[in-house]
Write a structure and sequence with these properties.
4 copies of one chain form a homotetramer. Chain A is an alpha/beta fold. The first copy, chain A, contains 7 helices and 15 strands. In chain A, the strands form 3 sheets. An 8-stranded mixed β-sheet of chain A has the order 9-8-7-10-11-15-12-13, sandwiched between helices. Chain A has a 4-stranded antiparallel β-sheet with strand order 2-1-6-5, with helices on one face. Chains A, B, C, D: One of its GO terms (biological process) is tRNA methylation. Chains A, B, C, D: InterPro entries: SAM-dependent_MTases_sf, TRM61_C, tRNA_MeTrfase_Gcd14.
Chain lengths: ~260, ~260, ~260, ~260
């Protein structure tokens, strides 16, 4: 078992300030009103608070959501929690499942998978670009509770090494090219989830899924609309994320 | 370990036809074009198909999503997968966590929780109305892979028996009344998720959370927008679910 | 000036009941709780009410919105008010403008245009299918206050007869084919609005607009989300219109 | 007739650059790549273009949308075109109508109204804060084609001077207080539209409408979702306006 998740704290301050800090690395953490040393931070109990220049800050153990949104280093567009959560549900991920993924990207969804399949499960993830591969490894090890991720530094177009996988998640530029390889790697009736940003990619992917015998269960986008948490003047935020990606879900038909 | 999930099959037919069948119960299953016996259905391999009156039907092992949406008996409004998935993410649920819930309702979210915390985790759920309590028990046992749910037939206003819970999910009519009890049951910095259908309830709940020292991390609604899976004429469905519920997330502050 | 709009009444009843009636046609109007004769209806003052079997009904002069949504005969998908309103704004329609349209369809948007450009303005509308052409004429004359619509029973691919139009609204299956003709009919810097249901059509239309020198100012969809008007339990409707159409707006570049 | 609208030009440049310029005021207009004098700009025909440092810019006569979004001076939150367009439709505004409004704010919706009711119509608008009143007058005269707006520098709580209005639009902080005055000013069955930013205000307003005998036809919010106009990679913008306001529509019941 990794311990990365135990070494991160999230600091909550005024006006939506949020910062994730690794308390094992001695450093000065700048705040909107002053600063705090990471060693002092480590002394604060979970849910406790401290004061800097008359302003109170709360400190929590960092959770997966905050780690991904506020700490994880990104070289690529990550899979947002709103999308990642729905993909986990649609791929029927639960403890013990064996799941494939390509590309790894910055490792955000790999981390969600790792946290969901637990010690009995396994995640096999493929990333062909070496710098992403290395970054993702670091990002995953920096938080996941479970030692269950196998990272491959190769393209899945060159072959998926595993067989009989419960589910596969695909997030590459031309997903239609990878469908035949994924078909080989999935067990019968295995779940497939694909994420693409454009409508043109959705159309191309749907054609490939039909050709390679996948049942398409859903094409969907998820919108998260946040509200200002003010009980006397309740209203949505002025601005919201308008688009991250379309998601396509299906299951393998036939042998 | 339960085996409920192994005994359900989902049949996929033309024009969006979808039906979940328990193959251990001998019965005739009606289809848009004819019928099939559940015993014949049991012989079809995962991802296989059969033909009824010249129309092909596909058969898959039932997943959690299809079980909740197309099989589970409902006496109450259930927590939809789009919302349930996001709640699991925001409550930071993973294998091994100990989670509380009230009310159980028809048990849909209890089932998501059970499937997410696995054999090492535990779900404690409270439901005061006896008929829902019994229905939920049946719904959960009919599918969950894990024997990890403790059901209480009582109101949480009469006290939560557990302590030091990692997270709590609240889905009752007047959530503001239950906040003090939940505060006692949660561990320091524990996660709280609340689901309510109306804006008035959001406002009341926010007031109670402030009073009882919870940090509110997010007030949000999740919209899932489905597309017709036709590559040459890609477009969203004509109608969509416009509203299920608002969700409020927070963490316990102080001891 | 037509008088069609003066002869229609809308009856509002319990549980969202709404019915538009022509009071010049003697008939019995069925209600959820009984009925009323159109001649009796004609006697009720604007904003007045009547009682049928102990239930109160309100009567208003019919407005454009109710006429289009609850009276106008449809052979085609109409332009919804939410979209029509935005198109009027984006095409900069005001009294006195000369505007072209194709196809007329059932005439809903033609009616919005007629009501917006007034006595000093003019609307030229093209519809090649004779049955739609006739239906639309009847629909428009049945309500518009202004005698300002010229209907053509022909395809615009065979030529637009007018020149120097302020704006053009295009709602046909393959809009990309009509762009060159519209270019000839519009005045310099004239406004163009196009409505299409699929993403594939948006892509094709954008290509044609670039080729034929139109500046694209916006590609947009409009979502209207309704709420239940209950002050103590304020919340959106359970279901909503998920999609009607995408809209593309532009202006003619060069001479 | 005013001529304000004839003196404004909109310049369209690369990366979404858009600027509205008054060509009667000699000045140097800064661009992303250089500049142009407003006097040179005045020579460019509608839909024409000019080049600044190898980059092409297009020039159009300014329309109402661009004037409101890119020129009009704001001291207040304005009514966005997406909302304004729908309000015009729901209030059944057409040439010749007599319409009231409060408060005037920066005059954006007053301008929409002025442009919609034309020479035969009339707009009566109330604004109690003198600096907004003056700003709005300037904003309206700077563009509207029609001399049809009467501005009052007073609160409508002190009385509306007009009677028998076709419609009224209300955009003040506590709309519930103004309902009785509006009731007096509207003709029988007259249309009322109210805009409020928070859910609490929606609830308060609904109570007042019921008390003062208005039929509520709709409570709604309008979302405009923009797409990047790239045919090969069609997708919505990353960010969108998440909320402007809720709108409530109704009609006066009884005398």
């Amino acid at each position: 078992m990794h311990q990365g998740f135990e070494t991160k704290r999230v600091i909550i301050g005024p006006d939506g300030f949020k910062k994730v800090v690794d308390i094992t690395v001695p450093k000065r953490v700048n705040l909107p009103t002053g600063h705090i040393d990471s060693t002092s931070l480590a002394q604060i109990p979970p849910g406790g608070s401290f004061v800097a220049n008359d302003v109170e800050y709360y400190v929590f153990p960092c959770d997966t959501f905050d780690y991904v949104m506020h700490y994880l280093k990104r070289h690529t567009q990550i899979v947002y929690p709103k999308d990642g959560a729905y993909i986990l549900m649609r791929l029927d991920i639960s403890p013990g499942k064996r799941v494939g993924e390509a590309g790894t990207g910055s490792g955000a969804f790999t981390l969600y998978l790792s946290m969901a399949v637990g010690n009995e499960g396994k995640v096999y993830t493929y990333e062909q670009r070496e710098e992403f591969y290395k970054l993702a490894e670091k990002n995953i090890k920096g938080f996941s509770k479970f030692d269950n991720v196998v990272t491959h530094n190769k393209s899945i177009l060159d072959g998926i090494e595993e067989r009989d996988l419960d589910a596969f998640f695909l997030d590459i530029r031309e997903p239609e090219e990878a469908i035949p390889e994924i078909r080989k790697a999935l067990k019968p009736a295995g779940h497939l989830g694909i994420l693409v940003p454009t409508t043109n990619q959705v159309a191309e992917t749907l054609k490939a899924l039909e050709e390679h015998k996948f049942y398409v269960s859903e094409v969907v986008e998820i919108l998260a609309r946040q509200y200002k948490p003010v009980p006397e003047r309740l209203r949505p935020d002025d601005r919201m994320i308008g688009h991250t990606a379309y998601m396509i879900f299906g299951r393998k038909i036939g042998e």
